[in-house]
Design a protein that fits this description.
Strand content: under 5%
Distance between the termini: 49 Å
Radius of gyration: 35 Å
Number of helices: 47
Helix content: 55-70%
Amino acid sequence: MTPPRIPPMPRPVQLKHSVDLQLDHAFHEQQWTTAANLARQRHKATKDEYYRAVEIAAKSRGDNAIDRTSGGEAVLALVNDNAVVKDVDALDLYEFAIDGLSMDYAKTIGVLRVRLAKALPKDKNIGARCLEACMWHSDWENAQEIAVSLNKNFPGDRKLLFQSIVTTFLVAIDDNTYGMKKNLFPNLVKAQADRAFNLRPLTGKEQASLDQIKISENEVKLWLQIREKFGPAQENLKLLSLPNWGPLYFLEHGFTDAFLLSVRLLTFNCQWEAVARITDAVFDKVILMGHKIPSAVETSDDGGQIDGSPATSVKPNNAASSIPSTAFSDSIRDQYMNASREWFLWISTITATRNLPNGQEALSVFRRKLKKVVRILTSAGRMKAVFQQNYSRILLEIRFIQAAITGCPNSTSGGNDTIQHLLQFSKEHISDSNCFTILKGYLERLDREDLASFGRALNTDFAAECANEFKAPDLFHALLLSSLKARARFFQATSFTAGGVCEVCCTAVKEGPDCVTCLESIVEYTLVAFQSGIQDEYASQRAADMTEDPLSNLALLGSICLVKLAGAHRTNWRHSNRSPIYNIDVKRFLQAIVWLDFYLKKVPKNDSLRLLLVKLYLMIGCVTQALQAWSLFDVKNTLLECLGTVCLDRLTSISPGHFMPGPGHLRSYAEPFIRHFETAIQKRYPDTVVKTLQNSSFAELSNLIELAQNQSRNCVIVLAVVENRRGIRLKNGRNETTMEDEPLLGCLSPNDKFQDFTDYNPLPQWAAPPSTPIQELAACGPPPTNRRCRLSILAERFLDQVCFAQPKDFKPSQTTQLLRIDWQTTASSCHTNYKELDSLMCGDGSDENDLTDSEAWYFRTVTELAKLLKLVYETVLLAPSTKATREEISTTIKRIIVIMQNQKQDCFTIPDKIPENGHTFHGMAALHAIGMLRESSLAVKSTMQHVATALDRLKATEKARGASEAAWLSPEAKKLSVASIAADVETKGRVKALTEDLRANGWIDRLVGWAFGDEERPDGDFAGLVERKLASFIPEDARESWAVGIAESWRDVMKGWGAVRFE
């Protein structure tokens, strides 16, 4: 664990109340020059160093570039002179003064904070302020020193003790901690935490006995975190087995989270017997309580009365902690009752029994005891629906484990027992939203024969119970059954390997993993079931009001099957010279969209429908419709983080208009993402850390830090910044701010990694593991990766370099000398940039499958341009060129031209498979390729302008050599400029052609005809059946409304392209 790489915002600073009104007003109104002059006058009159700090703070925010560094110079002088700033308010001002400077807080202000806290050890307020300031800036080492000092000087304050413990823990787990501290601090924090609870031998210095200490659950949770991180397994077991300590002690004191964390710790340490004994103790107490509930005293499954025999046949000892007395208070009774139904306790015990020597016997005993406990809990009214589902699930898990142990999953005296358990679970929880998700986990553990048996049993058993299910009185329940059966068959139909034979339809699966015949059959089945439900007012209304909406499931499943039947697969990402739907049957693809769109308008809050529809719309360039569906999410901050990539990724290259503020779009689409992450990481995180420390929620600190770490390395940050910059560049031709000025990415180091945290759980994950997930089928390209993020950042830095222009008022006196220094610096930067780009494009770990072809062409172009610029600076500007260097530069230019030609050909060549009336449709779906070609063209043009400017400067300082170098290099550079202009001309022509095509009439009829057919088909034809069924429940006005939405969305996208700057 390390501190978040993005520095926090400066803490708000207030001047002292003793400051006169004039100075206070000038400072807080940000009249920095006036405030600095007034502070200088007060310092001169009073000799108070506080006013000196006010002056430096004000100057550091002024317009003068030299004054802005005064804060850093003053702080460095204080640090180097071993000075102590004894005024904490003055130190706050010095901290304010260095904000924005490249200074290590821990080695500057942090050092001064420690000196101040140690210089005034008895001032608790100053120590607390210094500690909070260090924690705000994630300066854990200095915070630890301050916390230790506070604890030492105020030994009776338990809050200060745990502040010392938690800061020591943070230093111990910091990946940047090296040397002696790395070895010392883990042992130190263990000893500190143990002594805080008197768990180590007494030294005579203890504040009080454990019975007299008022401990909190947060303190115990911190102790458990430390033990999990650094404690040896046997030592942890020994401590958790001490009298008046351990899991049951935590439980009786109402520390439920600590109880579960202690069980997790023992499970993590593989202390299986201890886990089993804890469960024995909890179950025994509940069973003992059950004797006082008359309705709960019944005979057990094996004919005996409920007793207190061990649940897992493990001999009892002290390792499970002490057993409470039989006189139960209401609070203790509630704690044991609630703990006995915890899923985590059950699954931990299952894991423990599997690892015990007598595992099979222990599992059987646990199952019997669990049934008794559940009976008691049910009698007491404590088994709500969620716990009942967990109980059914744990019984199913036990059955599968027992089947695996015996090696005969379905050969029991009761017949096909495992299949019957699966059917029973399905029937009991068919109306639960996660029923099939749980069921799918067990279907994955069946072999093909058992999977086929389950499918047959599901159909026969359910059919027997619900004859004529679509005409049954309870149509809603029939729809639930239909939805479950269809998903189960879909799972089976997507689980094949090439060359297998489908057990359902007896069809040979040629390619795998999907059985095409079964997918077509599922589409037919779902269409019939959906039609039956949607046309019944009661059933459709009830479905819309339920969490488990069977009509939604039927529409989703049918649409997914249509997308698969249309031919969607991963390789579509690689067809950038065609649209992403080049190999896709357009009719089936549009049928999937119109089905989802129709039902989403009836249930606009269905997340699964919404998310899949957004992705499908984006695939065909229908951005406005996609964002309208996305807006129904009522997007919150969490959604921006976990689902932001769904809409944001590659959006600029498809619809640049959404990143150009104007009448239709008041702000860039990326702006909310950027603002959210800036606020979350730079302000909310440090503020929450300080408040958490103040509230003594010590165990939550590590979770907060981990959250901030994940936020700072989320790919969405890079996508938001890069997409926003590309949008600005497409309109203005350049960016006014550099990557170094971007708060979220300016402080990036080469070792920082990015990760995709996109959560696709809202999408239905119903296919078998061999099948491609729907989020990959319905995508414009591969998901974000660290490699693509790094390439994007390097490309942006390169563009900053070639687009940089000196201010017009910059007129240095020593032009030649400064120019040479500037060239040397630029050459070094070009060399570093090229090496990193080349390593990512061609080095170890490079994977072309994480880029679209358009992106690969673009990054290749930028890489070669970086090489070209490096060669120009090193072998032309800084030294006279040679024949070899000229040839190398010429070869590089030719290679860039070839790359540009290939990218242009891929972008504009119309494949033969596409009929003439589909050119516009596929052109809209291929906008990503056009956008990336525009980026390549802009990079080439900017680089050539940069080279031309550099040659002009060379001629101005060395006229003869400059003219000689320009004579051979300018014609070569012109070739690249011509290639760039040619790409722009064709891009502009394509944009114009698409715009004119979309202005033509007839798009509504054309789109409706593509989806619903415009000719009669025989009754047995699958395509005709789908067309007729969709038309039977989607009214004509809904079809036309859908087609109008697509056409208007395309026109809106092309309107944005009309604002793109072409030169």
